Amino acid sequence: MKEIKIFAPATIANISCGFDVLGCCLDAIGDEMIVRKSPDKGVKITKITGATLPYETKNNVAGVAALALLDALNFEIDYGFEIEIYKNIKPGSGIGSSAASAAGSVFAINQLLGKPFSKIELVAFAREGERLACGSPIADNVAPAIFGGFTLVKSTNPLKIIELPTIDELYTTIIHPQIEIKTADSRAILPNDIPLKKAVKQWANVGALIHALHTNNASLFADSLTDYIVEPYRSKLIPDFGLVKESALKAGALGCGISGSGPSIFTFSKNKQVTENVAIEISKTYSKNKIPFHVYVSKINLEGIKIINS
Amino acid sequence: MKEIKIFAPATIANISCGFDVLGCCLDAIGDEMIVRKSPDKGVKITKITGATLPYETKNNVAGVAALALLDALNFEIDYGFEIEIYKNIKPGSGIGSSAASAAGSVFAINQLLGKPFSKIELVAFAREGERLACGSPIADNVAPAIFGGFTLVKSTNPLKIIELPTIDELYTTIIHPQIEIKTADSRAILPNDIPLKKAVKQWANVGALIHALHTNNASLFADSLTDYIVEPYRSKLIPDFGLVKESALKAGALGCGISGSGPSIFTFSKNKQVTENVAIEISKTYSKNKIPFHVYVSKINLEGIKIINS
Known about the structure:
alpha+beta, homodimer, Ribosomal Protein S5, domain 2, seven-stranded mixed sheet, Alpha-Beta Plaits, four-stranded antiparallel sheet
């Protein structure tokens, strides 16, 4: 195999109660990437469309992730890789744009190398891209991008990822207000310390959500999608967050929260009709302000990154 | 049915990562109670052995729980109940002594009444006994006493309890140092606020533990039994806690932590032989100090309160 074309999916991190640990993978939103072997050693970013991003390998998340992978091989291969990135996920949208590029890069190179690395190793390489993007090697977006479905980052050091089951017929509707929130700002707004009483409520919900996934219990899943810790702070950065949430739940959504560090807002719903209804209602709600927005509807992607052709 | 004799089990609350939400039920440690119908209305505590506890109904956890149940019937039954309590679980031991009495009381009365109430309703009545015992209507001991196995208190208001699966062949060894720790003191030692970073680690472990129970994964279960929040504070109140933990893990225990608010220390292990080895090793360790102690070994009790005869 000399060249591979892949779909690198968007992801939702946090999922209300699971700040920094839970994530899930989307189907209908994602980038495309082409990675090919090249006679020149090392990694080159040769094409980027859809976003203005750095071409220098060491300044590009896909490049840095690829270098982490090659570093694990001590660079002992006698060829290199060219990467083309066709962005559909807007950087800074909160649905794992950098994670898609980083995860896609190492997934594709691993395929071209004959799959020497496991999925968990790919997550470890990909999160070096996240370190470049946000200063911290977070795994809650790259893990679902690589594993698919819902994932739990059990720990970051050592890196342990748990693959979780899903709820049948689960869809998500995402609204992306076209405003910029810097990840650094959305981190800075969070307190260092939180009330123990609220933390107890939060971990009860994490436990309940995992149980809901294992028992395919949509109503318990819905009942667990409450964030006592982060949403009260970050929602202030997203105009009309409360109105969107209200209209989503009224339209039948199981839950609604901030995707990653925002500004995208996710909702979950149980079948296609309800999902489309949610999309219509939150679009109506957001149309009342003057902020442009995009709305996406997607099933949960159980596979993760997909090979388009090779 | 005029009279019923039951076994009211001891329970472990918190279970390392699950402060205030997780609990599990024991088999080999528990009280016995006899409850019988009486021509006199209301509830009377007629016998208590094994501990010095109040006979006045309103000052006794079994009495208060029973009154909460009768209150839900508007006291519209033309007879009353006599309760005999044969304590084996020492009050203040940290393995759910008050919960056993409160849960046993309402379970038995419900049987005598022809089971008008569900298990969740019984938990709601029983936690009124906990309110008397510790000032707060906590449910993390009464829930596993009534449901059996492992339980998650999803929320306390409204009260929602989740029954969890267990790990095959799971045993617990409990060491109870004969010292007194007042629940009020062990609450007071906890901070109001905790670091967000530690809370994230804690809820990752709660999620992982629930996943481990659903997948019968003993090694993940073991790996999740870490308490970043409460144990660092409360362990200071229990002499040689660290030494016990060290020797338990060395002897093959899956995990070790403070049972409820202590002073009892629990360990989990995977089969009878390892369990007995753990019991021997922690006994040796604790014999080196001058504090008297008891050690108990028990399987996980999947049934909860048991009817001895009726």
